[in-house]
Amino acid sequence: MAQDAAAVTPTAAPVCSICIANFNGESVIGPCLDSVRNQDFDLPLEIIVHDDASTDSSLEVIRTRHPDVTLIPSECNVGYCVSNNRMVSRARGRYILLLNNDAVLHRDAVSTLYRHAQQLRRPAILGLPQYDIESGVLIDRGSLLDPFMNPVPNLDPGRRDVAMVMGACLWIPKALWDELGGFPEWFGSLAEDLYLCCLARLRGVPVMVPHESGYDHWVGRSFRGGKVVRNALQTSYQRRALSERNKTFTMWICCPPPASFMLIFMHLLALAAEGLVLSIMKRDSRVFYEIYWFALKGVWRERARLAGLRRIAQAAKRIPSRRFFSVFTPLPHKLNMLLRYGFPSIE
Length: 347
Hints:
Helix 7 (237-254) packs parallel to helix 9 and helix 8 runs antiparallel to helix 9. The chain is 41% helix and 17% strand. The protein is built from twelve helices and 16 strands. The strands form five sheets. A five-stranded mixed sheet has the order 3-2-1-4-11, sandwiched between helices. A four-stranded mixed sheet has the order 5-13-7-8. It has 347 residues and is an alpha/beta fold. The protein has helices at 29-37, 58-65, 80-90, 109-120, 174-180, 192-202, 237-254, 260-282, 285-301, 303-315, 321-324, 333-341, and strands at 16-22, 45-51, 70-73, 95-100, 103-105, 125-126, 130-132, 138-140, 143-145, 151-153, 169-173, 207-208, 215-217, 227-229, 232-235, 345-346. It folds into two domains: 13-217, Spore Coat Polysaccharide Biosynthesis Protein SpsA, Chain A; 227-346, no CATH class.
């Protein structure tokens, strides 16, 4: 009989600590926590929730309906990276499962991840197939990357090695998390999962997605946008700005030579050109200044930090560059999305 996670005592040694970052998740945190409790898994689990200064009734819901959850309330909004770093620092499990508050695990999710982690006999980052919670449609089995670090959904059930898995459901040994340094808190939010997976792959750590089980996800709810709605791509100024900046940070730090310098130069030119074209097409200079200039300015301001982190990351590289790029696709993903859906609407 499966053990209910709610029965785990504070003194029990959990196999896995499930860390859920919450901000204004009153409508979704209940199903998320219920999916954790309903796991077909006989070993002890630990549930940690970091509330990022929610202004809704999230805290009340968690305290009254889930009193055994380890709750870390924040006095101010600190962002996704800090939230997860705080939870992992408190975690007692051998493994960490980062889970979005708007994600719902399939019943065999934890057992699937644990089984594959044991079979690998080496540290690895694992994810699960991601399904749209409204339609049930498969979104991805992890992601590949295009030359500019844009995630390209992997839909091939025969492919387990991927470039990255989404932080919405990311399994990692705690020792590996500590070795990699966790999420870069100066990112704020977005692309921190890309950074962690790329840094791990540089060191020869597999990033994989088993073909079975999965999780359902309200895609784009946390930062609004980032999804296709009624055959049109929707995003937000905040989401796009942080995504473009942080993807560029990751490319600067993790992209191995000799291709790195040419790719980074081409990427920066492409960002500027894309921003100008979108601004002209939409007749709104805000698009360029609030998204693309924000990203380019951020790279310039952080150039010293990026150079230092790049030296450290590349010095620790243990795989050939060609193997790092083996999970990349040659065509820019944005071009494919433009041809399929046209220019995104930005709110």
